Amino acid sequence: MIPVNEPYIGKKEIEYVLDCLKTGWISSTGKYIQEFEEKWAAYCGMKYGIAVSNGTTALETAMACIELNPGDEVIMPTFTIISCALAIIRNRAIPVLVDAEPDTWCMDVTHIEEKITSKTKAIMPVHIYGHPVDMDPIIELARKYNLKIIEDAAEAHGAEYKGRRCGSLGDISCFSFYANKIITTGEGGMLLTNSEEYAEKARSYRNLCFRRDRRFYHTELGSNFRLTNLQAAVGLGQLERIDELIEKKRWIGDIYNKGLKDVPGISLPVEKSWARNVYWMYGIVLDEATEMNASDFANALHKRGVDTRPFFLGMHEQPIFHEMGFFKNDHYPVAERFARQGLYLPSGLTLTEEQIVKTCKAIEDVCRG
Ligand SMILES: Cc1ncc(COP(=O)(O)O)c(C=O)c1O
Fold first, then answer.
1. Which member of 59, 151, 161, 244 lies 3.0 to 4.6 Å from 173 by CB, making a disulfide possible if both were Cys?
2. For residue 181, how far is its CA from the centre of ligand 1 (angstroms)?
3. Torsion over CA: 259, 79, 154, 122 (sign)
4. How confident is the model at residue 291 (pLDDT cuts 50, 70, 90)?
5. 8 A C-beta contact, residue 156 and residue 278
6. Protein residue with least CA distance to atom 3, ligand 1
């Protein structure tokens, strides 16, 4: 079975982790945390990095930094992971959804302005599967309506928008370093910002809002979202070869693009003229005319030795949110089609050309019936 993803751990990661173990710096203090924060921030083109326990807690911390009031609204794509909506809801605000774009799969920026109300406080663009969101219109709306931008770049390490790295385009950006991400720490995440005030708030929030002046005296509620030095050691080792990892992702994307371009009944990822796609996960969307849904297609590929994963199910289709009174009569046709017709293919950094070619053949085989 060709797996969807496999971690790709190098010598440096092992060396740095051993160093933590030998020196006893295994918890959330230690040189690797600071170095990983500084180097990741510098790589993305931001001033401050605040490492946290995962991408979900990075988003929750970011939302805490902008101090939402109950009933405030944050505009986000429906086609994303639940972490985005959770971060908003856990901060007592209301997620307001926008459909996806048919080609980039990211939020359709032409539908944002119609969702802005007097309660809107922020926009949360999410770069989907490695392709950047069209950020300029969002930046313009944020200026016009005085909104914050919380950028979710969990899936877009090293991707670029008009020559600028994803993660450098908002007031705060959030990353995940889960095992399937381009850079991994096993579990882990980070916030980046140019604001000293947000950086300070995020550092405090991830560490139970201990006060500097009086440690066990609390004037705010925080959480324990700390990353360990052990995890940061893995991240630093990974970061030292990020160029190689991104080149590998783009190479995988290129081979799939060539191998699948003439296969009938599917659409492939795009790379807009203003974008550098890092093909975090190489997705395909089945045309409705194929009369097959993604689940049947995945089963057919599985029988041929190829593992896949379904695309996101939009937030407006989640039973838990209906139960909570959110999105009850919302419909977003593009995201609904992706949820039923989209899936992603083996995309891990250990993939060989032979495995990609075998995957393309299996897809062609299924598509041509
Ligand atoms: C776009 C996006 N945001 C946030 C997250 C959450 O990250 P984590 O799994 O590290 O909590 C993910 C996870 O895959 C993601 O894809």
1. 151
2. 9
3. positive
4. confident
5. yes
6. 154
